[in-house]
Structure formats: structure tokens, C-alpha cells
Predict the 3D structure of the following.
Amino acid sequence: MEDKDIIQLYFDRNEQAISETDSKYGKLCRKMATNILYNEQDSEECVNSSYLKLWNAIPPQNPDSLCAYLCAIIRNTAMTVLKKRSAYGKSEQMTELMEIIPDRQDVEKEYDEKQTARLINEYLKTAPRKSRDVFVLRYYCNMSVAEVAGSLKMNEITVRTRLSRIRQSLRKFLKENGYDI
């Protein structure tokens, strides 16, 4: 079923929307949640909570990409669970990013996080498609280097090299845009 048809089911308040969403994106959702939470039970609860959030968001939201919208909900839900477990920032992916984006413990933290996200999104818009895909799979979907390589049909060494170059380029971009590193 096409995304637009699934979205229409949400607008019609047809409960089949959730089963169609799960049928099409359930495997991806569970993989994302598991890559963040490392716990099957928490991951399943995260996915179910995310489906409820999606149900409550559509309508009024009408996303261009159901997959991207759902992935954002899954990631945010999983990160909330992770923060509650006091394990936020300990994954390998977060450690790599924290090398160039230090954690700030001041009043401006929330503002800084939004600014950082905006700058990263700006950077990704200018990045080559393959680099953007590698970055998103690694840092947004929390996939291992091996999983990214398999998903994009690339060599692991190539993925590691590309990630290193992306981080260097991102660091330079952030500095050029006034981000204090």
C-alpha cells in the first residue's frame, strides 16, 4: 500500500492504518528502536507508543513522507525512554558525535540543541546524497557500520572513511557558522 493511501486511512480514522503502517514499516521501526534501546521489550513498547503518537498526529499533520515522519517519532520516543533509563549519550554513535558537539550543561542547552539540529540539517542538505544516507543511517537510525554498509551495499572500510570525512566536514561547517567547538 502506498504511503498516501495509509495516510488517508489515518485521516479517515480507520484503524487499518496502524496495521498497514506496521506491515510496511514495522521491521524498520523495531530495528531503529532496538538500535537505540538494546532491549526487545522496551523496543516493542516504543514502537507501540509511536504508533499511538502517529495516530494522534495524523490528522492534522499530513506528512510528505510517512516513513520519515514515523522514524522521527520512533527515534524521539526511544530517546525519551533512554533518557529515563539514564543511559543517554553512552552509545557508540553518540560518543562519536559528542567528539565534535560537546554536551552543554547550562540554561542555553535547549536553545543550543535546536541550533545544532538546524545547522546539521543545513549541512546535510548540501552533502552528497550517499554521504547524507550514511550519516542518517549511522547517527539517526543508530545502525552499526556493518549495517550501514550492508544497507547501502558498501564496504565497511568505505563507510568508516566516509563517516570520518563527514565528521571533519561537519566540524568545519559548524565552526564556519559560529558554533563554538
